[in-house]
Every structure is written in C-alpha cells, then in structure tokens.
Specification:
- There is one protein chain.
- 79% of the residues lie in helices and 0% in strands.
- It is built from 6 helices and no strands.
- Helix 2 runs parallel beside helix 4.
- It is flat.
- The N and C termini lie far apart (101 Å).
Length: 185
C-alpha cells in the first residue's frame, strides 16, 4: 500500500510542478507584454518631447524676430553651427580613412582589376578580397612549373608523383616545356 501512496504523491507533485511551470510561463509572458507597453510609451513620449522642443525653439525665434533681436538669433545659429562643425570634422576624418583603406585594398589588386573593383563600396570590396584570399588554391611550391618549363629548383624528378607525371604526359606541350627546360640547364 505504501507503493501506491508513493505513486499517488509523485503524480500530485508532478501536477503541481506542471501547474507552477504554466503559471511561471504566463507570468513571464505578462511581464514581457508589460515591458513592451512601457517601452512604446517611453518612445512615444520621447518623440513628443523632441517635437515640443522644436516647436518651442521656433516660437522663441519668431518672438525674437518680432522684437528685432537679430543678433541673438544669429548667436543661437552660430552655437548650433559650432556644435555641428565638430561632428562634420569627425565625419570628414572618417571618410578620409575609408578612402585610404579602399585605396590600400585596390592597390593589392592588379591594375586591370582596379578599374573594375573601384566602383564597389569599401564593405563589398573587403568582403570580396576576403573571399578571394580564402579561395586561393595552395600549391606545393616544389611542383610549380617555372617560366623556363622546369619545375621549381627544389623539385627532383623522383619527387614528382605518378599522378603529376600522368598529367604531364597527357599535355604534350607541358611535357615538352619541362624536357626543354632540363636540356637548357
């Protein structure tokens, strides 16, 4: 009988835990909704405040104009221009750095490609060059064919794999270049 009682108690506990979880989820959902409500209310209040500040500033300017206090109006505009000139200087400096970065990236490309990629924005150019560097095929330098037709100086004929030999034999021009390269030296 104690086993039956334990099973019943476990069921009761599981049901209580499930009820608590459901209630917690509902409470969290309610808190999230309330938070969103307060956020939208605050955002609307901020936008209304900014509109009212602009309205007050225009009213003050109209009053000063009616009173003929042009000097004060000019001083207010001068303060505003001074505060914006710092922002403009920072913006100009940032644009100059971006232009220098773009020139540096373009200088890494061949001249023929520079004309093509000059139209791209800095972000697109950076992304393209990153992809280009990632897609670069890495070759074993010892298997590289030089302009003379020989493999690089570090290569010995015994180092060439059977697969590479088959490729060379399939391409008679390449094979002839390699043979001529060895004959010249």
């Amino acid at each position: 009988m104690s086993e039956v009682q334990e099973v019943q108690e476990n069921k009761v506990v599981e049901e209580a835990v499930a009820d608590n979880t459901t209630q917690d989820n509902e409470a969290v959902g309610g808190l999230i909704a309330e938070s969103k409500k307060y956020r939208t209310r605050a955002q609307s209040a901020e936008s209304e405040l900014n509109e009212l500040k602009k309205l007050i500033a225009t009213k003050e300017e109209e009053q000063l104009a009616e009173q003929g206090k042009w000097k004060e109006i000019a001083e207010n505009y001068k303060k505003e221009i001074d505060s914006l000139s710092d922002i403009k200087a920072d913006y100009d400096q940032m644009q100059m750095k971006r232009a220098q970065r773009k020139e540096h990236l373009l200088s890494e490309l061949p001249e023929a490609d520079q004309e093509i990629y000059n139209e791209l924005s800095l972000e697109k150019l950076e992304r393209h060059l990153e992809n280009k560097k990632m897609n670069k095929v890495k070759m074993d330098p010892s298997k590289e064919v030089t302009a003379s037709g020989k493999f690089a100086s570090a290569t010995k004929m015994s180092d060439i794999t059977e697969e590479d030999r088959m490729k060379m034999k399939r391409d008679p021009n390449l094979w002839n270049q390699i043979v001529e390269g060895y004959k010249k030296n």
